[in-house]
Design a protein that fits this description.
The protein is 29% helix and 26% strand. It is of the alpha+beta class. It has an eight-stranded antiparallel beta sheet, sandwiched between helices.
Length: 585
């Protein structure tokens, strides 16, 4: 549950036609569907070809114009992602925790200014004065987390641990995003209401809002519609496949994440807020009013569970993003502009945030990215391109034919460069900075110093612990870690990923550092580099597209016969050739 609004990727303004106002063509119809809906559906269907799987809802002026799933929710059973698929919203759970606190305030059971000493007699002096307001606005001084999300930890154990934790700064001094603080809010709700937190959310927040498919423990029918998460090729399973308490998540996750829902139910929450059916007008104003800056910039500012920024029209944008290293979601509300965007993805390989950036640009008539035109796949054309190829450097490039695309997997630095559109300007500088940070962190880690690794991670201490565990498991398989080589940084599926090769006594592994703004969301040790997907663009011609940068690379399969002799990669720096490797017996 590691994301805050300030970590959202910045939209890229490229390649498009300006519209004069927000969705000016929305009333236009074709067979009962708006032009805007048709355009967005085409855009998202293309992204699904490049690897996106998830669900998208877009509403405008009180009408849902798109509510649809893309890709697969369960690859093993080829279950498609649909509008009814449930997914883990991670940190987007925080607005609901905040609403639960304000619901208690409406009932005159708590006040935002109440200190922790009112609820917990054994709270130590340094934390006794922390207020609910400070917990709600991430200004309590508590750390980001105090343990793994799925660690079996009861409420009492959680309270003992967090009360023993050293504060990062005195309460009220500054914004420091804290999942731990929101779990403490959930404990307050349980103490005051005398009910499990999940049960309170269901009866006091979700049901009044008409959110019938939302909660910690879905009913049997909804469990069947729960999406699996994927880390590359590996099936992470559903959230319910991981340790749970009888009444919901354990306490390192309760209150700050773990809610399962649908895009439609998130839209129902927006409607419920607009008509004051859950929170009164006064409480909603408190809920949504910006309170503390998240960075040194004027915006975004954090409210109670919301990041508040300015929409492209200068009005309010209330949003939150959520991710757990597998699922990634972005929820954006524009109350005065009459728009809502919900995007979720169930794979680490594709960024819901980058997609939401582009949907926002389109809704508000700004320049937005358009993928290159593609054509239907022909099995014969895909098959003749498949195989093992070799670059001039000697590096291998593997090409696999899938149902409607080619999956091209690089082996090393040159392959990454070819498959990654060259970044320009400030992005090139940022990529180089990230590679330097990774190199320094890994060099220190080889000498047993994890401080630099923690320093590049959003959840520094917990992330460093996970890295240490992952490295230990790899060394148990391949022997001692001997050396590191940073291969490069690329935007892949809208995510910025720095990749390095780790050499051990008995083999090598690849390291992926997935960035969320200036810090890394997570580090992963994987067996091979991720593939880049190419869609057909003509006879023996294919193209890839990155939603984060708008970059494209073209690929042609050259030669005659049933198997192409060469691949020609057309990049911004020129054409690069890879020759088919001879077959071996």
């Amino acid at each position: 549950m590691r994301y805050s609004r300030s970590l959202r990727l910045l939209p890229v303004l490229l390649m498009a036609v300006l519209s004069p106002s927000i969705a000016a063509d929305a009333p236009a119809r074709e067979e009962g569907r708006s032009t805007l809906a048709i355009e967005l559906e085409g855009f998202l269907s293309q992204l699904a070809g490049y690897g996106y799987s998830g669900t998208v809802l877009v509403a405008l002026h009180g009408q849902v114009i798109l509510d649809q799933g893309y890709g697969l929710a369960d690859r093993a059973h080829e279950t498609p992602f649909t509008a009814d698929t449930l997914f883990d919203i991670a940190s987007i759970s925080k607005p609901f925790t905040a609403a639960a606190v304000l619901r208690l305030e409406m009932q005159d059971k708590v006040k935002a200014g109440d200190p922790l000493s009112r609820f917990f007699p054994d709270v130590p002096p340094d934390k006794a004065g922390i207020t609910l307001h400070q917990l709600l606005t991430h200004t309590s001084g508590l750390p980001e987390s105090i343990g793994p999300e799925y660690e079996p930890l009861t409420r009492q154990d959680y309270l003992q641990r967090i009360f023993a934790t050293r504060l990062l700064h005195p309460p009220g001094v500054r914004f420091v995003y804290s999942n731990a603080g929101y779990s403490l809010l959930a404990a307050v709700v349980e103490v005051v209401s005398g009910r499990p937190f999940g049960a309170f959310l269901r009866s006091e927040v979700f049901q009044p809002a008409g959110m019938r498919h939302t909660g910690y423990l879905p009913d049997a029918a909804d469990r069947e519609r729960l999406a699996h998460g994927y880390t590359g090729d590996d099936d992470w399973g559903t959230p319910l496949d991981h340790p749970q308490a009888p009444d919901g998540p354990w306490w390192n996750l309760r209150g700050n994440g773990g809610i399962l829902t649908t895009a439609g139910d998130l839209y129902r929450w927006h409607v419920a807020l607009q008509d004051n059916s859950v929170l009164s007008a006064a409480e909603r104003e408190k809920y949504e009013s910006p309170k503390v800056p998240e960075t040194s910039a004027p915006f975004p500012r954090y409210a109670y569970g919301w990041s508040v920024s300015k929409s492209p029209t200068g009005r309010r944008e209330l949003s939150h993003v959520g991710g757990n290293g597998v699922f990634l979601s972005d929820y954006r509300r524009y109350p005065e502009d009459g728009a809502v965007i919900v995007v979720a993805s169930n794979t680490v390989d594709y960024s819901a945030i980058a997609i939401a950036d582009q949907l926002e640009l389109r809704l508000f008539g700004k320049p937005f990215l358009k993928p290159p035109a593609t054509v239907p796949a022909v099995a014969e054309q895909l098959g003749r391109c498949a195989g093992a190829y070799e670059l001039a450097s000697g590096e291998a490039v593997e090409v696999a034919a899938e149902r409607s695309r080619l999956a091209v997997t690089p082996e090393g630095h040159q392959g990454l460069e070819i498959l990654s559109p060259e970044p320009g300007g400030k992005r090139r500088h940022r990529f180089a900075e990230r590679e330097g940070k990774v190199a320094e962190a890994l060099e220190a880690a080889m000498h047993g110093k994890l401080g630099p690794v923690a320093g590049i991670l959003v959840d520094s201490a917990d992330g460093a612990r996970r890295w240490r565990e992952s490295l230990a498991a790899t060394e148990a398989e391949l022997g001692a870690w001997r050396s590191t080589a940073v291969l490069g940084t690329r935007s892949l599926g809208g995510q910025v990923v720095t990749q390095a090769r780790l050499t051990f006594e008995k083999g090598t592994r690849e390291l992926e550092v997935v960035w969320a703004g200036p810090t890394a969301d997570h580090l992963s040790i994987v067996r091979r580099l991720r593939p880049t997907y190419f869609l057909p663009a003509g006879p023996s011609r294919f193209v890839t597209f990155d939603v984060g940068t708008g970059g494209t690379v073209s690929l042609s399969c050259a030669g005659t016969g049933a198997a192409a002799a060469e691949l020609h990669f057309e990049t911004s720096s020129g054409t690069v050739t890879a020759r088919r490797r001879p077959a071996t017996n």
